[in-house]
Amino acid sequence: MIFVVTPLYALPVAAIYLALWMRVSAMRGATGVSFGDGGNAALLQRIRQHGNCAEWMSFVLILMMLAEGLGAPAAWLHVSGVLLLIGRIAHPFGLKADTAGHPLRYVGNGSNILAALTAMVYISIHIIGQ
After folding, report:
1. Please, how many CA atoms are within 13 Å of residue 9, restricted to the half-sphere of its CB?
2. Mean pLDDT of 41-50
3. For residue 55, what are the CA distances in angstroms to 51, 59, 113?
4. Mind giving me the DSSP string for 76-126?
5. What is the pLDDT of residues 66-112, one digit of tens each?
6. 24 with 46: CB under 8 angstroms?
7. Is 100 exposed, middle or buried (0-12, 13-18, 19+ CB in 10 A)?
8. 99 phi and psi, to 5 degrees?
9. Which structural domains are found in the chain, ordered by start?
């Protein structure tokens, strides 16, 4: 099976992941903290921005690959992929220590939940339809 649609979203999301990793790494170098957050709230924020990206991108991309492997129409996959990308762009800007209810945090989490659900619905339809 050759995946055609999922890689279109995996690549930019991977670039976001690496950018977030570089921000963590740069702050670790600047603060001299090699493990954990060292009590530094700004470093903790960057660690969680990166960690949240790793958690969601892995989950949604696996679901997208499963759906694509089952023959999902491109439209289903593009819906999940666009939602994933929106979430991964928005979430780091909304994940703030002093503002738990930041709108971009809701956009990030909400769009990623919808991305996962879209792929899950297709997978469920495929399983039930067999």
Report:
1. 30
2. 95
3. 6, 6, 12
4. HHHHHHHHHHHHHHHHHHH-BTTBTT-HHHHHHHHHHHHHHHHHHHHHHHH
5. 999 999 999 999 999 999 999 999 999 999 888 888 999 999 999 99
6. yes
7. exposed
8. -140, 85
9. 6-129 (1.20.120.550)
Structure-token pair, residue 121 = 């619905």
- Phi, then psi, of 96 in degrees rounded to 5: -120, 140
pTM above 0.70, yes or no: yes
Tokens 């603060």 appear where?
Answer: 31
Long-range contacts of 74-81 (CB under 8 A, 24+ apart): 74/4, 74/5, 76/118, 76/119, 76/122, 77/5, 77/6, 77/119, 78/5, 79/115, 79/118, 80/9, 80/115, 80/116, 80/118, 80/119, 81/5, 81/6, 81/8, 81/9, 81/115
Say if CB 94 and CB 41 are below 8 A apart: no
CA atoms within 13 A on the CB side of 8: 13
